């Protein structure tokens, strides 16, 4: 997102600077913007005299959003900001050109001089509220939206536009846009499901809108479908989108999800996808201490502390090891004394995972987010010489599960450090040990293993960072 905004600065030059700096206010503050997902809500069709109403409308959406799962559990991961963009007139255009209703429908044909050119009847559908009647018409408004964000909050993660109109309407896309009518809260949450989390609609759609996604697939075999781990749990199964044509070839996971109907919860498959997206974007490690520290004649004990962004209720777990030896778990701080250390380099690692029941990997292609904080402690007979700390994040994927001949291991990490994997039988015997030298896919031959359940242990040096179950067929 930041790269796009920087490019636009060069493309539109001084145009974005002139009259584009507006009043910005933080209406949900969970912490440092750099360590949170930042949702930015822009006003459209609100005159300056109506900004109090805009703030109230935005707060209503935010209160509804964070009262529902999974936003409720991960509320601490989000900040919300509003940008008060003034329009010359209130409301939105209604050209009366929709082909899906008899026009004028509910509201008279009208036009309004608004900042982003919000209009009903976009793409021929009355309820399609967009910043242009079609994509070509929306080009100028798209530049304006990007320019406003670049000038006022360039490090946003997701933007939402709220239009000052009581008539039901909205669309998804890069910048979801919703009216402020009676269903505004639910509609905004639904549209954010599209734009922020890549969820598909679960009702019958025009043919061009079908495609593989978290909650949409052409696979109807319950043993192969991407949400097979949820089958027969919380109403999850494999349901056709429609009975004829293209919709009949596509399947959804639930009959009553928010991506199909407003006013109901997200289904378990959508929640899982949303939580995984949050994991992709935000580390639960907000800070740690000591960070990088030159220590002169330290007084023992030395305290090592994690400051974590915790879900509600807290589902984060952590395990501490020193030189590969277990120390403690599920504590945010430990103390080290001189007798704990060896002469030379010592490695203290805290491994953090989210054990949320909103993510279910049993009997599924396994993918785990692992976060680590590692301190290197240099110790001599004179005492601690220095302590250096750093964080890392790993996404570990094992597939297929179950596996028959070959197990694929993929490790994604921004700052990859050499790992190794040891496959252990249930009686504790190491049956395979493989170094993983780069964060690419590695194939492990398991054809020689007997059918059964094994544990794949991942190590950074001598420190265990993850244990994952695998099944050999």
Describe what you observe in this structure.
The chain is α+β, with helices and mostly antiparallel strands. 14% of the residues lie in helices and 33% in strands. The chain is built from 5 helices and 23 strands. The strands form 5 sheets. Strands 10, 12, 13, 15, 16, 17, 18 and 21 form an 8-stranded antiparallel sheet that branches. A hairpin with a 2-residue loop joins strand 16 (366-380) and strand 17. Helix 2 crosses helix 4 (184-197).
Strand content: 25-35%
Parts with pLDDT < 50 across at least 5 consecutive residues: 1-17
Helix content: 10-25%
Number of strands: 23
Order of helices and strands: HEEHEHEEEHEEHEEEEEEEEEEEEEEE
- Shape, per Cα inertia axes: globular
Structural class: alpha+beta
Query: Tally the helices: what do you get?
Result: 5
Q: What separation lies between the terminal Cα atoms?
A: 43 Å
Rg calc: 26 Å
Biggest β-sheet, characterized? 8 strands, antiparallel
List the helices and strands and how they pair.
Elements lengths: L1 H11 L10 E6 L8 E8 L6 H15 L12 E7 L54 H14 L5 E6 L6 E2 L5 E3 L4 H14 L41 E2 L10 E2 L15 H14 L3 E5 L2 E3 L7 E7 L7 E7 L2 E5 L3 E4 L7 E11 L11 E15 L2 E17 L6 E7 L6 E7 L4 E7 L5 E4 L6 E9 L2 E10 L1
Parallel strand pairs: 2-3, 2-4, 4-6
Antiparallel strand pairs: 1-3, 5-6, 7-8, 9-11, 10-17, 11-14, 12-13, 12-15, 15-16, 16-17, 17-18, 18-21, 19-20, 19-22, 22-23
Helix pairs in contact: 1-3, 2-4
